[in-house]
């Protein structure tokens, strides 16, 4: 069973968690995964669906923020030009971005046969991290079918965390990394809202991790791993049902970096650190003929609540990705210890 910060008495910030403490606390958001683990193959795909309908037809307002741009993601340029997302978000390994993008295109065409013929083309959104040390990334093991499996498995329940889906072969601060999630409840004008984070963690030098209580746990191989350059990455997906516009979402996405900094990350030269944020509180209809669209936005005198939620949920999601992962043996016998194992030994 996955372990989280709650199991170790770790507290990240002051805002209350959502019921599931996951990105799926945002109504409509669903997450699925496909895990590949056999021999030297340790990889997979994770899918985040903003809502259960036709996302191309009913796009969600979105933004992205590149903290450090050493990455190969797709779709970010159009997100920041048009301010919307029109496909599910897929996460995978670096060399499988194209495969997952093709799968998203096929999925969108199957639902919308007019794509590229009588209407616009589609902008697939894929994020990646390099799982090479633990996975034979050159095998190109991820297929379109695996991406489709992740999409089909998406649900709105608790999120599988740790060494699952895209997180199967990832490393974080020298520990086993992977998929992590967390959420925060926010009250605005007497109504309850949520902001949730889902992360794919593959960043941070061994020995740099700082827990909220000041402890600095290190894996046994910290000395050898810390001599390596910071070449890892993290993809952060932030979702909320608070109505925001593109500019406001960009401001919220930037605060994910504060969550990383709290953990001891400095976003190294070779790190690809990217945040993608969307709201289900504002959607854009693909087929609308109205000259003027109605859109609600948050009073920015209240936006600090979302800034804090983004930092806290990101920090906690990263820790959950490591605590939920078990000790791991990957390609050519490369090993990564779980953060949970180290904390249990110190108790």
From TrEMBL:
Entry's Gene Ontology molecular function annotations: aminopeptidase activity
A Pfam family of this chain: Peptidase_S58
PANTHER family listed in its UniProt record: BLR5678 PROTEIN, D-AMINOPEPTIDASE
Family: Belongs to the peptidase S58 family.
Protein name (database record): S58 family peptidase
Lineage: Bacteria, Pseudomonadati, Pseudomonadota, Alphaproteobacteria, Hyphomicrobiales
């Amino acid at each position: 069973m996955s372990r989280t910060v709650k199991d170790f008495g770790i507290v990240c910030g002051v805002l209350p968690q959502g019921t599931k403490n996951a990105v799926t606390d945002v109504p409509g958001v669903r997450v699925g995964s496909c895990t590949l683990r056999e021999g030297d193959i340790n990889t997979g795909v994770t899918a985040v669906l903003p809502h259960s309908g036709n996302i191309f037809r009913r796009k969600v307002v979105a933004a992205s923020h590149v903290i450090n741009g050493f990455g190969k993601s797709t779709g970010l340029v159009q997100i920041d030009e048009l301010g919307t997302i029109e496909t599910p978000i897929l996460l995978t390994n670096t060399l499988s971005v194209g495969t997952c993008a093709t799968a998203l295109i096929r999925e969108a065409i199957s639902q919308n046969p007019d794509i590229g013929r009588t209407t616009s083309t589609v902008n697939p959104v894929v994020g990646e991290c390099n799982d090479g040390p633990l996975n034979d990334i050159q095998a190109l093991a991820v297929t379109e079918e695996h991406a489709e499996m992740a999409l089909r498995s998406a649900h709105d329940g608790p999120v599988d965390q740790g060494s699952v889906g895209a997180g199967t072969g990832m490393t974080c601060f020298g520990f086993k990394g992977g998929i992590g999630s967390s959420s925060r409840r926010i009250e605005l004008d007497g109504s309850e809202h949520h902001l949730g984070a889902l992360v794919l963690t593959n960043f941070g030098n061994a020995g740099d991790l700082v827990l909220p209580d000041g402890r600095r746990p290190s894996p046994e191989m910290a000395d050898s791993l810390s001599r390596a350059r910071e070449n890892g990455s993290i993809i952060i997906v932030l979702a909320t049902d608070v109505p925001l516009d593109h500019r406001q979402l960009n401001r919220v996405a930037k605060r994910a970096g504060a969550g990383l900094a709290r953990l001891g990350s400095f976003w190294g030269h070779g790190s690809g650190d990217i945040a993608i944020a969307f709201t289900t509180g504002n959607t854009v209809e693909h087929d609308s003929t109205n000259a003027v669209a109605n859109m609600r936005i948050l009073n920015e005198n209240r936006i600090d609540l979302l800034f804090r939620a983004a930092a806290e949920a990101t920090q906690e999601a990263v820790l959950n990705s490591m605590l939920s992962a078990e000790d791991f043996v990957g390609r050519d016998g490369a090993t990564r210890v779980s953060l949970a194992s180290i904390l249990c030994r110190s108790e």
